[in-house]
Recover the amino acids of this structure.
């Protein structure tokens, strides 16, 4: 019989219980014991769900209080010196590594491959040693074993951990510490076996990259060590690994997992010579999307593998279900026809069970399920309200003139400065301000009809007035309206665009307690009416300085949505670009002289394999150009990117030709600027890490600005935080921004007096 398993389950809770518990713990409202109780309850619920929905193995080790990379770093004992001796409890020391403290910057936060999940990067050096403490990990294994199914412990693999680790203040070959890392991992595997795990899954998405040959050569000796301790499942995901198939086939492992959602064609290559003494796990249900699986298509795809492998065939989602919401049954108000298209994590377990039954008992045993699946697939393909011929023709009629500014940046900058009159080192923020309880309550009351549109409008007007006044008091040079009307930078725009649907409870974790609710993109995109113009115009009318119009760019609108697989992503990207372009032009017509088009997903959407990247970048650049090029030279276009490695796409970032780009740089202490040398336009490397509650002091911000000035001419440097400020509170924000403005003014004065 086929075997069912998963690599991981969502860990935020059915109603985001753990997110709320984390926030409450960090604010001192609940004790550690209550936080642990909530965490344990969520893990128990996950195991019950897995058992109830027919899985043959339970997965332990996929839960985290913040991030699995951080968990592994702590388990290995790789604790940077600045976190030692803080005299904190174990859990508070852990959270300090994630969030920082007053004088202790946290670990760097960056994107997990091509997803919108963020991980915390380990910090290593040539003399890094390992001191394993796997007690917390093995406790999870023992707890899961009580549910009566075999237990598979899951860990991020050693190559992925090492490859993603950051080298601080020196240059050395990371592989030089791999032998010691393998020994430490083997210790964890041994303890896992003693705790009751009869299989350990090592999660190695890094194998989908173009790894140097030296890294590939180290796979075999590393896994030979592990296989002598406990049976190992090597999980590859997020892309094809057919380029290293011979190496993977030769490994001494119990099983191999392939992501067939990303590359169904790789199955044939592995089946040709797959060893008879191991199982093959196939990721056939999309762990990163919410549309129902095409069961007939998948069944036809995997039947040859089942005939060859029999009980050695395992079925799973393509990757951890961390990237998917929990239960579509919680969606009480979706249109029934559209809801019938969707499958969240629990429904994906049911899809696996149906496929297993079809393999073992034949298609006739699941005829009703196949008929329903075929009907849904056909309905999604044919639905009339998903098509818009007007916008399709508009995309077809685009010309080179539609994606080109009138003049080059030097000419534009002169005109913009004449219009704006900004000082050296202009200060600004990225866009959002704290989303207070009163803002969330007002938005909820408006959605549920407890207040009418007039009351809500008055409330938002009041919040914008407060935000503008606070910024003027702080002394910022370029203001924002603060976005009190926006729940999320993608969901807000999706709600106003045709072609999207929104869920009520489709939450996924982005990092720590931060959750997002990606909209579902199911058809052609159009903008029926202006979205942001009214509030931007209002904010500018009450401000004595320029106010930026704030938009989410087309690449991010696409990348941070669940997109139907039958849609042409390239065509939809251009439709999104046209919708943003229309908004940009309307903002300009309303008197907004600075418009920011945020593209934080620009880097994360990059394909993992080098050979596919140029096509993606060409489309992304064109989309941004279409969105931003419909304005005059005097209108200043900004963009923002964060928490990614930018060096390898530097040429593409230049090609965007934004007048100003702001990027995350504070956690890396401006080392990011080494990756983007000689950026030709204006740039604002972040001087304030907004993902940490710590408030940087004047000295720290001054040092970062001075470091930036070593790489960027003063006339092209902007001063800003790393990202939006919606997750912080006003006390933190005001203190940090006052320090930022004061630092900029001090350096500005020094430069002007030279």
């Amino acid at each position: 019989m086929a075997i069912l398993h998963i690599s991981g389950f969502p860990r935020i809770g059915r109603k985001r219980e753990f997110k709320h518990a984390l926030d409450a713990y960090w604010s001192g409202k609940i004790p550690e014991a209550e936080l642990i109780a909530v965490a344990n309850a969520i893990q128990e619920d996950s195991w019950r769900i897995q058992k109830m929905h027919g899985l043959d193995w339970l997965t332990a080790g996929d839960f985290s209080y913040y991030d699995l990379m951080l968990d592994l770093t702590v388990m290995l004992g790789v604790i940077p010196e600045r976190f030692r001796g803080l005299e904190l409890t174990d859990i508070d020391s852990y959270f300090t590594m994630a969030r920082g403290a007053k004088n202790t910057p946290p670990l760097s936060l960056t994107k997990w491959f091509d997803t919108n999940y963020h991980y915390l990067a380990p910090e290593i050096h040539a003399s890094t040693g390992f001191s394993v403490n796997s007690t917390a990990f093995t406790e999870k294994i023992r707890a899961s074993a009580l549910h009566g199914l075999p237990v598979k412990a899951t860990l991020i693999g050693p190559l992925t951990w090492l490859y993603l680790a950051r080298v601080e203040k020196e240059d050395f070959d990371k592989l030089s510490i791999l032998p010691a890392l393998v020994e430490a991992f083997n210790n964890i595997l041994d303890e896992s076996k003693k705790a009751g795990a009869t299989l350990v899954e090592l999660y190695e998405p890094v194998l989908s990259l173009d790894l140097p040959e030296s890294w590939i050569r180290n796979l075999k000796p590393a896994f030979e060590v592990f296989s002598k301790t406990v049976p190992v499942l090597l999980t590859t995901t997020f892309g094809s690994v057919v380029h290293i198939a011979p190496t993977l086939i030769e490994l001494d492992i119990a099983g191999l997992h392939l992501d067939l959602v990303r590359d169904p064609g790789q199955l044939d290559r592995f089946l040709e010579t797959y060893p008879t003494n191991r199982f093959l796990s196939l990721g056939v249900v999309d762990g990163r999307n919410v549309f129902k699986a095409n069961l007939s298509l998948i069944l036809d795809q995997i039947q040859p593998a089942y005939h060859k492998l029999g009980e050695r065939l395992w079925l799973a989602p393509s990757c951890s279900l961390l990237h998917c919401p929990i239960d579509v049954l919680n969606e009480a108000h979706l249109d029934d026809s559209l809801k019938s298209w969707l499958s969240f994590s629990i429904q994906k377990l049911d899809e696996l069970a149906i496929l297993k039954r079809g393999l073992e008992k034949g298609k006739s045993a699941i005829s009703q399920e196949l008929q329903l699946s075929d009907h849904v697939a056909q309905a999604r393909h044919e639905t009339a309200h998903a098509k818009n011929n007007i916008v399709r023709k508009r995309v077809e009629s685009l010309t080179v003139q539609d994606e080109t500014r009138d003049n080059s940046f030097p000419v534009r900058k002169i005109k913009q400065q004449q219009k704006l009159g900004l000082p050296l080192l202009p200060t600004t923020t990225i866009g959002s301000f704290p989303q207070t309880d009163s803002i969330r309550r007002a938005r909820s009351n408006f959605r549920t009809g407890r207040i009418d549109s007039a009351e809500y409008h008055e409330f938002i007007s009041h919040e914008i007035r407060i935000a503008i006044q606070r910024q003027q008091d702080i002394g910022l040079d370029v203001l924002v309206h603060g976005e009190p009307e926006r729940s999320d930078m993608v969901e807000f725009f999706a709600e106003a665009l045709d072609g999207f649907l929104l869920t009520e409870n489709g939450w996924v974790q982005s990092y720590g307690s931060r959750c997002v609710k990606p909209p579902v993109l199911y058809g052609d995109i159009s903008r029926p009416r202006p979205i942001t113009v009214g509030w931007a115009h209002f904010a500018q009318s009450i401000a004595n300085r320029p106010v930026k119009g704030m938009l989410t760019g087309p690449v991010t609108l696409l990348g941070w949505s669940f997109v139907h697989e039958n849609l042409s992503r390239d065509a939809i990207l251009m439709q999104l670009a046209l919708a943003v372009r229309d908004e940009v032009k309307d903002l300009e017509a309303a008197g907004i002289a600075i418009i920011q088009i945020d593209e934080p997903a620009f880097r994360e959407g990059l394909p993992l394999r080098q050979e596919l990247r140029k096509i993606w970048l060409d489309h992304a650049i064109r989309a941004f150009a279409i969105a931003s090029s419909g304005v005059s030279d005097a209108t200043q276009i900004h963009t923002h990117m964060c928490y990614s490695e930018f060096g390898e796409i530097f040429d593409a970032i230049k090609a965007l030709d934004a007048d100003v780009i702001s990027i995350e740089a504070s956690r890396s202490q401006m080392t990011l600027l080494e990756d983007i040398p000689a950026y030709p336009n204006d740039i604002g490397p972040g001087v304030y890490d907004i993902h940490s509650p710590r408030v940087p002091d004047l000295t720290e911000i001054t040092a970062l600005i001075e470091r930036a000035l070593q790489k960027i001419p003063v006339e092209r440097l902007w001063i800003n935080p790393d990202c939006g400020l919606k997750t912080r509170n006003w006390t933190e924000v005001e203190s940090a921004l006052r320090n930022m403005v004061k630092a900029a003014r001090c350096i500005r004065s020094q430069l002007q007096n030279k």
User: Anything to note?
Assistant: The first helix runs from residue 17 to 26. The chain has 27 helices and 22 strands.
